[in-house]
Specification:
Layout (H helix, E strand, L loop, with lengths): L2 E5 L3 H13 L3 E5 L2 H10 L4 E5 L7 H11 L4 E5 L2 H10 L5 E4 L4 H23 L4 E4 L2 E4 L4 E4 L2 E3 L3 H12 L4 E2 L1 H9 L7 H16 L9 E4 L3 E4 L1
Parallel strand pairs: 1-2, 1-3, 3-4, 4-5
Antiparallel strand pairs: 6-7, 7-8, 8-9, 10-12, 11-12
Helix pairs in contact: 1-5, 2-3, 6-7, 6-8, 7-8
The chain binds calcium ion.
The site of calcium ion has 5 residues, from loops.
Length: 229
């Protein structure tokens, strides 16, 4: 579900916008203050920002400018004043769209939809094609390099991530520790190197809440290596 941030100090307008966007299936947060709005727009995980210009604290022009230094998120600016709109154009703030108040909420929803679709197309290669592996309660996003276990995101180190992903991509295939060391550490194992694999597997299992006796994901094939179920 796309998340939208509305930065608007007029409560009735903000609520009207929110209600229409919510009915259209969006997740919406409202912020009535410019400073907080800037902070949320920068730190929050929003897919689009509807930005009023005259705000207590940082104004919409400044928010848009600062936001553009860091993010590509679509911004629709709104103002009651026609000359603000000219200013947005003139300043080249990088806003994607602008609307003059009063506007119909339906018009806002239509533009939000259009900009989200456009943004999805632009970033689509990354956003929609995330390479995801799902096995039982395990979900691995190879693009974002994130792992969830039973819906909870778990922190994995780079090597743990690579090792688990490699095994998950090759189910029912037994790999020796030396094989895995070569694959993941990208060099031939010498001496105790294979013990590194054992240690990593142990940590991965802990995070997956997987056990050797009753394994859900990684089976130990005694004397040979490991196999992903
Ligand atoms: Ca205002």
């Amino acid at each position: 579900m796309s998340k939208i941030l509305i930065v608007e100090d007029e409560e009735s307008i903000a609520e009207l916008e929110r209600d229409y966007l919510k009915i259209s299936g969006y997740d919406v947060d409202i912020c009535a203050n410019g400073d907080e709005g800037l902070y949320k727009a920068l730190k929050g995980d929003y897919d689009l920002v509807v930005l009023d210009i005259m705000l207590p604290g940082t104004d919409g022009f400044e928010i848009c400018r600062r936001l553009r230094e860091e993010k590509e998120v679509p911004v629709i600016m709104v103002s009651a004043r026609k000359d603000d709109i000219d200013k947005i154009r003139g300043l080249g703030l990088g806003a994607d769209d602008y609307m003059t108040k009063p506007f119909s909420p339906g018009e806002l929803v239509a533009r939000v939809k259009a900009h989200l679709a456009r943004y999805d197309r632009l970033t689509g290669a990354g956003k929609q094609a995330n390479d995801i592996i799902e096995v039982g309660g395990l979900k691995i996003d190879r693009t974002a390099r994130k792992i969830w276990v039973d819906g909870v995101e778990k922190p994995f180190t780079a090597k743990e991530f690579d090792l688990l992903t490699f095994l998950a991509m090759h189910p029912n295939h037994v790999y020796s520790k030396a094989d895995l060391f070569r694959e993941i550490w990208d060099m031939e194992s010498v001496g105790d190197d294979v013990a590194t694999v054992t240690v990593h597997i142990k940590k991965i299992r802990e995070k997956l809440d997987d056990t050797t006796s009753d394994s859900k994901y990684i089976e130990t094939i005694w004397g040979v290596g490991y196999r992903f179920k």
